[in-house]
Amino acid sequence: MSVKASTVLSAILLLTVAGNVSAQIPVKGAFICNYTGKSGTSPDVVCSPTTTSNAHAQKVVDRILKPIGLMRNFKIIECTNTENCFATVMKGQRFIVYDAAFMQSIEEETETDWSAISIMAHEIGHHLQGHTIDGTGGQPQKELEADKFSGFVLHQMGASLDESMVAVRALGDEHATTTHPAKPARLEAVRKGWLEAEAMYPKSGMTNRPALASAPRPVTSPVAAAPSPVVAVPRPAAIAPSRVAATGRTTVGRATVGCVSGDCEDGKGTFVYPTRERYAGEFEEGDKHGVGTEYYADGKVKYKGNFRDNLRSDYGVYYYRNGDRFEGWFQKNIPNGKGSYYFADGDRVTGTFKNGQPTADCILAH
Prior knowledge:
The chain is α+β, with helices and mostly antiparallel strands. The protein folds into 2 domains: 3-197, no CATH class; 253-365, Histone H3 K4-specific methyltransferase SET7/9 N-terminal domain, CATH 2.20.110.10. Helix content is 26%, strand content 26%. The chain has helices spanning 3-13, 55-65, 100-110, 114-128, 140-157, 161-171, 183-200, and strands at residues 27-28, 31-34, 45-46, 75-78, 85-90, 93-98, 258-262, 267-272, 278-284, 287-295, 301-308, 311-319, 325-331, 334-342, 348-354, 357-358, 363-365. The strands form 3 sheets. Strands 7, 8, 9, 10, 11, 12, 13, 14, 15, 16 and 17 form an 11-stranded antiparallel beta sheet that branches. Strand 10 and strand 11 (301-308) form a beta hairpin. Helix 4 packs across helix 5 (140-157) and helix 4 crosses helix 6. The longest helix has 18 residues, at 140-157. The chain is elongated and about 70 Å long. The relative contact order is 0.10. This is MORN repeat protein. Keywords: Repeat, Signal. InterPro entries: MORN. It holds the Pfam family MORN. Residues 1-23 form the signal peptide.
């Protein structure tokens, strides 16, 4: 287990509310999304919203939010004997309500702290995607979106794909309910989120230029695409390129994640990812399909061109963070066909590219 994971685990195990929590006052909640979907404590009853926020729990939540550049805009309180973790809104205030004993028991059952962390990330996903304030109640699609969010975030925190799935494997129901999908669908959603993060921010790292990473899929998509190989367009050995800094991120307060405008299923829309990168363009069956533009978190254009089945395809232009760009033909997300790689200093490589690499017929021009 990593030092980072152990630190978060210690914080979760120390989740105790400052002040007297034994006197719990039932309060009507406007809406509650609970992790397991199982019956127990009434979903309309939570602890008093006046309970002081737990400093340890706040640190855990802040560590979850840090990799995606967001600030906490909700209160965290403990509610014992609920055997669950909830996201809710009461009197206009956002809350995450947890049972510390439940969180500890799931960590012990799975023998890893990532289970408790993923549960917290799932509930945070409900808030960030507006599930608790849209007035539509509990829905299976909301749970899949929150599961996908948790998979994305856990990748950014350093969890493996298996570690990201451990909570759903332990707590997911084999059968779907009116509010929660069956376990296989939830596992698939977590997998999609993790793979999207891996495609955008590969764990393997690179030594030269940034990869033409595979396109992330919107949460509304029913099927996930495997990430494309990480490839970089190398410059000839005589000209050593400088290493490129990682994608910038924007710190936001009340952020919106997911489909923020239009139709992200079959039409034109704008979809914002947890990293604050976004896509604006055409969708088909939840996939990027047609003409569209991808943006970095700071609003600068990342790619502009055509997409097929969620991948960059046909003609397009990819803009690197260091000022380089590739103009030409794409297939399965990477340069394949005629094109030109323009370096920021004015040099360019022109010719045929295969699987992201220049072929022998490419010419370097100064």
